[in-house]
Structures are given as structure tokens and as C-alpha cells.
């Protein structure tokens, strides 16, 4: 976790834009939880990362996906949009930085691409996000009667899913957002 935190901090520092007088010196950071990390699990799972960011002077917030990531990723992206609006309102920031883990990277990208996030996000850092799917979801779909037992979040993470085809159509890097993808 130490290397990941240092890498996230380096990516945030590299993506930092000059702040205007009325805005905080650094954008607030929203950590976007992955599959099976809805609230309150996300608060516990990402506590170390959030605390390390806070210790380095960032305002850090944790977002847990809808229904622990089992729901349609579009629903989590819409909830993320509202969450970011609340963070921006409470901090006075015009934009935020997102750190998306696993499915959280997909949630963040969908928000940026389809829900106006390109105007509200300075940087999108993905930690082990499955931007083009994962064979684990394909295997899960195969083993679970061919459809992940109706779990939308699982189905959408399959390689070649209609959700990923939609998300990856056109440019992967929407707007002026600075993208960093960290893989393991």
C-alpha cells in the first residue's frame, strides 16, 4: 500500500493546476470504491489511503458504489456525480481529482464521459481498473449460468460487454482531464 499511496500522491502533484485565489490550493480528492466496497465498507477499505492523503494536505472523501458495486455502473456514476457536487459545494472547489480503484475507475470514466464530469474533474487516477474488462468476470458469467446471476456490475465488467463497448467508444480520455492508469 505504501508504494500505491506514494504513486497516487505523485500523480496528484503532477496533475495539479495553478489555483485561483478563491479556490483551495489543491483539488479535493474523491476516492471511488470498487466492486463490493459500498458504504460503509468503502470507508474502512480506503481509510488508509484517505488518511495518507489528508496527512499530505489533501481534502479526501470516500465514495462507495451503489449496492456495493452490484448495481449498474451507470447508477454508481450518477451517484458519484451527486457526491462530487456535494464535495464541490462543501469545499468551494470548482473541480476535484478522482482516484478510482477497480470498478471505481469505470465509474469515474463514465461520470466524466457521459454525466458532465469532464467539467468537474481535473485528474482521474485509476488503480488496477479494468478499463477493457476482466477475464474473472467472464469466468464468473460462465460459471454463474452465463449472466453473473443477473448482477449488473459483474456483467458490465466482462470483456466485450455492451457497457464497456459504450464506455470505450471513441476517445478514452475525455476533456482536459489528466489521466493516470496504475496497473499491477
What's the mean pLDDT score? 87
Q: Compute the gyration radius: what is it?
A: 16 Å
Q: Stretches where pLDDT falls below 50 for ≥5 residues?
A: none
Helix fraction, binned, reads: 40-55%
Main sheet specs? 5 strands, parallel
**Structural class based on helices, strands and sheet pairing:** alpha/beta
Oligomer: single chain
The succession of helices and strands, N to C, reads HEHHEHEHEHHHE
Number of helices: 8
Kindly estimate the percentage of residues that lie in beta strands according to DSSP: 5-15%
What does this structure look like?
The protein is of the alpha/beta class. The chain is built from eight helices and five strands, in the order αβααβαβαβαααβ. A five-stranded parallel β-sheet has the order 2-1-3-4-5, sandwiched between helices. Helix 5 (103-114) links the parallel strand 3 and strand 4 (121-127). Helix 4 packs across helix 5 (103-114). The longest helix is centred in the middle third of the chain and has 19 residues, at 73-91.
Amino acid at each position: 500500500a505504501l508504494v500505491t499511496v506514494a504513486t497516487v500522491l505523485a500523480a496528484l502533484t503532477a496533475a495539479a493546476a495553478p489555483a485561483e485565489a478563491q479556490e483551495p490550493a489543491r483539488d479535493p480528492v474523491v476516492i471511488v470504491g470498487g466492486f463490493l466496497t459500498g458504504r460503509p465498507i468503502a470507508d474502512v477499505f480506503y481509510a488508509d489511503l484517505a488518511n495518507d492523503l489528508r496527512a499530505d494536505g489533501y481534502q479526501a472523501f470516500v465514495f462507495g458504489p451503489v449496492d456495493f458495486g452490484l448495481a449498474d455502473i451507470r447508477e454508481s456514476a450518477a451517484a458519484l456525480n451527486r457526491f462530487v457536487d456535494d464535495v464541490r459545494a462543501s469545499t468551494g472547489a470548482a473541480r476535484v481529482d478522482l482516484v478510482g480503484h477497480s470498478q471505481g475507475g469505470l465509474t469515474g470514466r463514465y461520470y466524466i464521459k457521459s454525466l458532465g464530469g469532464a467539467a468537474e474533474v481535473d485528474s482521474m487516477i485509476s488503480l488496477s481498473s479494468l478499463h477493457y474488462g476482466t477475464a474473472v468476470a467472464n469466468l464468473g458469467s460462465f460459471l454463474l449460468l452465463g449472466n453473473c446471476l443477473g448482477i449488473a456490475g459483474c456483467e458490465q465488467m466482462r470483456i466485450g460487454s455492451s457497457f464497456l463497448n459504450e464506455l470505450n467508444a471513441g476517445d478514452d480520455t475525455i476533456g482536459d482531464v489528466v489521466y493516470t492508469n496504475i496497473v499491477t
